[in-house]
Design brief:
single chain; Porin; 2 domains; four-stranded antiparallel sheet; plasmid; FApF; coiled coil
Length: 440
């Protein structure tokens, strides 16, 4: 193609030289009086030369167009090859953003190239867990959060004390124990970005709690004719336990890496203790406790990996409960010391983004709570139990299935709703949480 262009240019130059030589030779050969008679022949020769030049110029223009098209195609091929070779793995901007994908004829991993203006400084949030599952609050920003939490736990247990002669023949005392607990908690929390990677926060709850229980001996299962159904119901309202948190972002989530946040939570027993409430002569509580009655410290690590259009998240932690000495009577024993068991906590899940405002989250959380050690002594010692005795309860396995929805109302506020359903016998049956954060 390039050779054809060169030949055309040479031919055009020869034509021009030939025309000039012909004109010069004609003028020198013929005298002045003969030029007029040959004017028609010269004009005809000039027209033929100009036609030849125009034809060659048209051919050159056509070849230039073909070369330009070839260069355009070559540049496109180079660009496609560069994208397919150099495109990084999925990476995330700090606060999420929009993504673009290449053309269908050049499939490559999705590349996140920026974020929409309305997403600026908006932390990634996961509705199914607490605020330890969002990227830390930006420096200098204050977030206030209103939360409403409802928990329901039902227990039905048959207690048999006697001899079993066959699979369905029981001789002894057979009681049915039922209990129900409803807890409604409203709280206000604050989070503040102290530095680019550090935030601190606090939450103070108000708790309404209603407990009821029924102990019903099966008729004929005991020789005590005076045995009767015992019902107990109590409810109350008060301040809950204060929570204080600190969170530090270890990894910023660039170049496809996850966000990794170190969390530290402390709980202070500002609510009423279950060991300080009044009880009747049978040891039944006459008022409810709105707190746990212990100090606790909970370090944990959270990882959040955006991979448009989903977000993967997980948390692993350990809860340390501080033992305390008490002096309370729960007939027929006196309790002198309580050492609540520590707990291993873990959770994982996925958030699926439907659009810029709505995200649905699914997950699972599990707590392995070790047994509680209680030091007790009988109010009326016996030869078999003359002194104090340590009793360790069994471990608890608390598994919950998680479902949540996050809806962004504006750049500064969102609506988070989550539901937890108990997956193990020890877990509460249902817990639902509504959170509304406001950024300032």
């Amino acid at each position: 193609m390039f050779g054809q262009i060169g030949s055309g240019q040479i031919g055009l130059g020869k034509a021009r030289l030939g025309l000039a030589a012909m004109l010069g030779g004609t003028m020198l050969t013929h005298p002045a009086h003969a030029q007029q008679s040959d004017a028609a022949a010269i004009r005809a020769e000039l027209d033929r030369a100009m036609a030849m030049i125009a034809q060659q110029q048209e051919q050159l223009d056509r070849q230039r167009g073909e070369i330009a098209e070839m260069r355009r195609r070559l540049d496109t091929a180079y660009a496609s090859a560069a994208v397919a070779t150099d495109a990084p793995a999925v990476s995330a901007d700090r606060d999420g953003g929009s993504g673009v994908s290449p053309a269908a004829d050049a499939p490559v991993p999705l590349v996140r190239v920026g974020q929409a203006p309305e997403d600026e400084d908006q932390p990634i949030e996961i509705a199914v867990l607490d605020n330890t599952s969002s990227v830390v609050t930006p420096r200098g920003r204050l977030i206030a959060e209103a939360q409403l939490d409802y928990t329901r736990a039902d227990r039905s247990r048959a207690v048999f004390r006697g001899v079993r002669l066959a699979e369905v023949v029981l001789i002894g005392v057979f009681d049915i124990n039922e209990s129900r607990q409803d807890v409604l908690t409203g709280s206000i929390g604050m989070r503040y970005g102290v530095a680019d990677r550090l935030e601190i926060g606090a939450r103070l709850p108000l708790v309404y709690r209603s407990d009821s229980s029924i102990i019903a001996p099966v008729p004929g299962s005991t020789n005590n004719d005076g045995a009767r159904t015992i019902e107990n119901s109590v409810n109350g309202f008060g301040l809950g336990d204060l929570e204080v948190t600190a969170r530090y972002q270890l990894i910023d989530g660039r170049n496809g890496a996850p966000y990794v946040i170190a969390n530290l939570q402390g709980v202070f027993p500002t609510g009423s203790s279950p060991f300080a409430v009044s009880r009747d002569e049978l040891g039944r509580a006459e008022e409810v406790a709105t707190g746990a009655g212990f100090y606790s410290i909970s370090p944990s690590l959270t990882a959040i990996l955006p991979s448009d259009p989903v977000v993967l998240f997980g948390t692993l932690g350990y809860n340390v409960n501080v033992a305390r000495s008490i002096d309370t009577v729960i007939p027929p024993v006196r309790v002198s010391r309580i050492d609540p068991g520590d707990a291993i906590t873990a959770s994982a899940g996925i958030g699926i983004s439907f659009n810029q405002r709505t995200t649905v989250n699914l997950g699972y959380a599990h707590n392995w709570a070790f047994g509680t050690r209680t030091t007790t002594a009988l109010l009326d010692p016996t030869p078999a139990w003359p002194d104090t005795r340590d009793i360790v309860s069994r471990d608890l396995q608390l598994g919950r299935l998680l479902f949540g929805v996050t809806y962004r109302i504006s750049d500064r506020t969102s609506l988070n709703w989550a539901v937890e359903v108990g997956a193990t016998e020890d877990s509460p049956d249902l817990r639902t949480i509504l959170r509304v954060p406001f950024a300032f």
